[in-house]
Design a protein that fits this description.
The complex is a heterodimer of chains A (343) and B (444). Chain A has 343 residues and is an all-alpha fold. Chain A is 76% helix and 3% strand. Chain A has 13 helices and 4 strands. The radius of gyration of chain A is 20 Å and the shape is globular. The chains are: A mainly alpha (343), B mainly alpha (444). The interface between A and B is large, with 73 and 74 residues. The complex binds CIS-heme D hydroxychlorin gamma-spirolactone and protoporphyrin IX containing FE (2 copies).
Chain lengths: 343, 444
């Protein structure tokens, strides 16, 4: 396998990790906005506590994707950030306000100096960010980014204000909501867990509906993507993703709580991998192949050697982090749980 | 509105200036945490653990803002400088990729540290400060080495506009790297030390000379007192490096227009770009030649001696340089005063004037950092990659950058306002053990 394909695999893996981990933090904002019923406040609080220690680490996956693009696909990086100037700017604003609102809220809660509206800002920004990132991904797959002689010639809106790209934005939000609800079922119990279970079931149905709709839309709005999707490789991955979706429904339905987070994460990984498989060997559909936009081999080699070495530090540290904070975060139960978190 | 390049430069400068304020504390505070909690463990004095606990709260807050503002920078490399990144990405991207690992390590252990006060044993908890401190210094090293490459681009060949023969080690360890990374990283310890000291000096000025405040003050100033002289020495080395390797920047820093043997060191003054001279400065005869080249009669090249479309705007470089140096010597003076006072009285009893001086010094580290970066960045102009690519060639082809400039200026204003509202009501100097931590006794 050539170096640039491996590097493209790293981009894909980084995006999947960002979706699996970071996505759940954005979903936290979705369910903060949609918290309802007699336990609304407890739902919010449980999410807030679960996110605290991990969201900054989860965010670094995005940085990893970006630096991989710089290093291994600088040309693609330039094309994407030129073509998707508008949606990426809005996603960035969302990232800024999401992060700041969460941190301010956390500091305020622990020091008794709460600021107004941080919860609202947090929710709105958490929804906007995946929505616009989804638009951007939809534009990459949708084939409306036009590059001629190394210059982006498509306009500010035409690549992403397209039915297919818009559907991808909604899918991204649904993925986030689905993941959070699933993860939270494993970290709560009793009535609160029921709340999250119902949310997880609802969002998996929404996600299934949206992906089906997106594939149908692709038929007339993203022809290049549709063509590639019907090749054998992508079809296999897609079928696996469907199987994952069904498995998530089963484990949620039967209440197999420890299995819910991994199955949900696996499903999301497969959905994204299906997109990746369909894109291959293109980086930006319909014209830019992975090899057209890759860096030279020396750089790729250095990067691909540094990656596993860095992972030797990274992976055990990540395991330590998630292991340290993997327990129940229901505020009503935390008083009895081992080690109340800071407040 | 403004054209793309002007807006992009303004927004980039604003975003970087914002980011560096937080990351200076992001690099400096972990060292203070390491020391405070470590001393607490070693001496068993609970005050230190409480100190670390409070600092860690604000560290969590500032780190988060540092992380989001850093993300802004990463996006801006694409949104504002796509053509520059298209060219440089494969050369310096590797450096940033290594930085990514440093970020991960830092974020992971910070999460464990901040949220793990009750979950980890005291020793394990303290151990977390080590990877945080080390990783944050490494992130600074990597990113500053990328910036050093922009000043001294090495480790690649340019054939017909195509980059080839990349050598990532020579990129990362380019000639400017040792000077810039040392000076740029130490700066964070100077700034953090004085910033923290200011809080406790202020509390003492208001009459609260509790043991907690005194110990916190000594600890913060000890870090600053070690770092400041080193910082000044490394600044001097940087300047001498520039004299030889970026003489245009050096001339702009010093307000030197004419090429001159035995050039004087000009302190302050008014840079008159029309008359092409620096007026009303305090001039120390021959000192500049000596500082730059260790020879009182060495020739210093002036700005007029270079191609006029390849020199920076001297006013944007000379004044910030004066500010940085002045701030540096002021901080050195305050640190020396404090420790001489400590040594003479054998106790922590700073008088009012000394406390005022510490208070005055407390923002100086940040001021010097911002000023120093202005020297570096404005002094590199008109190049984005020195003598390889002009800033105007690196910008995005998109038109709407001025909209981003306005939107992000407002966003920074909102973030700053929120932060001030949080921090101005925060009372890190009031030591009041809480019921939840019964093991910490009250000390008066
Ligand atoms: C606490 C902060 C601080 C203090 C006290 C000083 N500096 Fe500084 N200086 C910085 C913080 C800084 C910085 C913000 O960190 C810079 C910007 C780029 C860099 O690497 O460091 C910098 C850059 C910088 C440069 C430009 C380097 C380049 O463009 O390659 C020079 C020549 C100096 N400094 C020289 C000095 C001298 C002679 C000082 C003596 C008082 C001094 N600095 C004090
Ligand atoms: C964090 C401290 C820094 C500050 C305060 C700072 C400040 C500035 C300022 C004021 C400008 C505008 C200069 C002009 O156009 O006249 C600028 C430009 C720029 N800086 Fe920095 N800088 C910092 C660090 C860095 C680092 C570490 C890098 C890269 C690794 C970097 C990359 C750039 C780029 C790409 C530009 C735009 C191109 C240019 O104007 O030359 N900066 N910065
Ligand atoms: C000299 C200048 C710089 C220094 C010393 C510096 C240092 C740091 C440090 C210590 C952090 C950790 C977070 C914190 O402490 O708040 C951080 C975060 C970050 N910085 Fe910078 N940085 C600099 C310039 C840049 C530039 C030019 C970029 C853009 C490419 C950048 C991108 C980032 C990103 C993306 C993060 C967030 C990482 C995370 O999610 O944890 N930084 N920086």
């Amino acid at each position: 396998m050539s170096l640039e394909i491996l590097a493209a695999g790293v981009v894909m893996a980084g995006l999947i990790a960002y979706a699996m981990f970071g996505g759940a933090d954005f979903g936290g904002g979705v369910w903060t906005a949609l918290a309802s019923g007699p336990r609304g406040a407890r739902q919010r609080e449980a999410i807030f506590q679960a996110m605290g220690p991990v969201w900054e680490t989860n965010h670094v996956w995005l940085i990893l994707v970006l630096v991989t693009l710089w290093t291994a696909f600088p040309t693609a990086f330039a094309y994407l950030f030129t073509a998707l100037f508008v949606p990426l700017s809005i996603a960035l604003l969302g990232i800024v306000f999401r992060g700041a609102a969460f941190a301010y809220r956390h500091f305020g809660a622990s020091e008794g100096t709460e600021l107004p509206a941080t919860g609202l800002v947090f929710s709105v920004a958490s929804i906007l960010t995946p929505l616009f990132m989804g638009f951007a991904i939809g534009a990459v797959a949708g084939g409306r980014i036009e590059v001629e002689d190394g210059n982006v010639v498509s306009g500010y809106v035409s690549p992403w204000v397209q039915p297919f790209a818009l559907a991808c934005g909604l899918i991204a939000v649904a993925i986030c909501g689905f993941l959070t609800a699933c993860y939270m079922t494993a970290r709560t119990d009793g009535a609160l867990r029921e709340d999250f279970r119902r949310r997880a079931l609802a969002s998996s149905v929404v996600l299934g509906g949206l992906t089906t709709a997106a594939i149908a839309i692709a038929y007339w709005n993203a022809e290049a993507f549709w063509d590639r999707l019907s090749a054998p490789g992508p079809i296999v991955v897609m079928l696996l993703a469907v199987a994952g979706g069904i498995a998530s429904l089963i484990v949620l339905w039967r209440g197999l709580w420890p299995l819910v987070p991994p199955v949900a994460a696996g499903t999301v990984a497969l959905v994204i991998a299906a997109w990746g498989a369909a894109q291959y060997p293109y980086f930006i559909l319909p014209s830019e192949r992975i090899s057209d936009v890759a860096a030279n081999d020396t750089t790729l080699r250095f990067f691909l050697v540094a990656l596993p070495i860095g992972s030797l530090i990274l992976v055990p540290s990540l395991v330590l982090l998630y292991w340290t904070f993997s327990e129940n975060t229901d505020p009503a139960r935390r008083t009895t749980a081992r080690g109340r978190a800071q407040r | 509105m403004f054209d793309t390049v002007t807006s992009a430069r303004a927004l980039m400068g604003l975003s970087l200036a914002f980011h560096i304020g937080f990351t200076a504390l992001g690099i400096g505070l972990p060292l203070l945490l390491l020391l405070a909690e470590g001393i607490g463990l070693k001496t068993g004095n609970p005050l230190y653990r409480e100190m670390a606990r409070r600092w860690s709260r604000v560290a969590a807050l500032l780190f988060a803002v540092g992380a989001v503002s850093g993300t802004v920078l990463s996006f801006e490399f694409g949104l504002l400088w796509s053509r520059w990144m298209e060219f440089s990405g494969e050369i310096i991207g590797f450096t940033f990729a290594l930085e990514g690992f440093a970020f991960f390590t830092e974020a992971i252990f910070l999460g464990i540290y901040i949220y793990g006060w009750e979950r980890l044993s005291p020793v394990a908890h303290w151990l977390c400060t080590i990877p945080i401190t080390v990783a944050s210094a490494f992130s600074a090293f990597f990113v500053i080495s990328a910036n050093a490459w922009m000043n001294q681009p090495r480790g690649f060949e340019l054939v017909n506009g195509q980059v080839s023969d990349i050598n990532p080690w020579r990129v990362m360890f380019n000639p400017a790297t040792p000077y810039q990374t040392t000076h740029g990283t130490l700066a964070a310890y100077v700034a953090a030390g004085f910033a923290v000291a200011g809080v406790y000096a202020w509390a003492m000025l208001r009459g609260d000379r509790s043991e907690y405040n005194r110990r916190a003050l000594v600890l913060a100033l000890a870090v600053a007192a070690v770092a400041t002289p080193l910082q000044i020495v490394s600044g001097d080395l940087s300047a001498r490096f520039l004299a030889r390797n970026q003489p245009q920047k050096f001339a702009a820093m010093e307000g030197q227009f004419k090429t001159e043997k035995g050039a004087p060191l000009r302190i302050g003054g008014w840079v008159d770009v029309n008359a092409r001279e620096t007026r009303y400065a305090i001039e120390i005869p021959k000192a500049l030649s000596f500082l730059g080249y260790e020879d009182f009669n060495a020739e210093v090249r002036g700005l007029d001696d270079f191609a006029q479309d390849e020199i920076p705007e001297p006013r944007l470089v000379h004044y910030p340089f004066q500010v940085m140096v002045a701030a540096g010597f002021f901080m050195l003076f305050v640190a020396a005063w404090f420790f001489v006072n400590l040594w003479r009285t054998r106790s922590v009893r700073p008088g009012r004037w000394l406390l005022y001086a510490i208070l005055a010094a407390s923002p100086m580290g940040f001021i010097a950092i911002e000023a120093g970066w202005f020297v570096t960045e404005f002094g590199r102009q008109p190049w984005i990659v020195w003598q390889v690519m002009r800033t105007s060639e690196g910008a995005t082809p998109r038109e709407g950058v001025w909209v981003l400039l306005i939107v992000f200026s407002l966003a920074y204003a909102a973030l700053t306002a929120g932060l001030l509202m949080l921090l101005l009501r925060w009372r890190p100097h009031l030591f009041e053990p809480r019921r939840r931590f019964p093991e910490v006794p009250r000390v008066t």
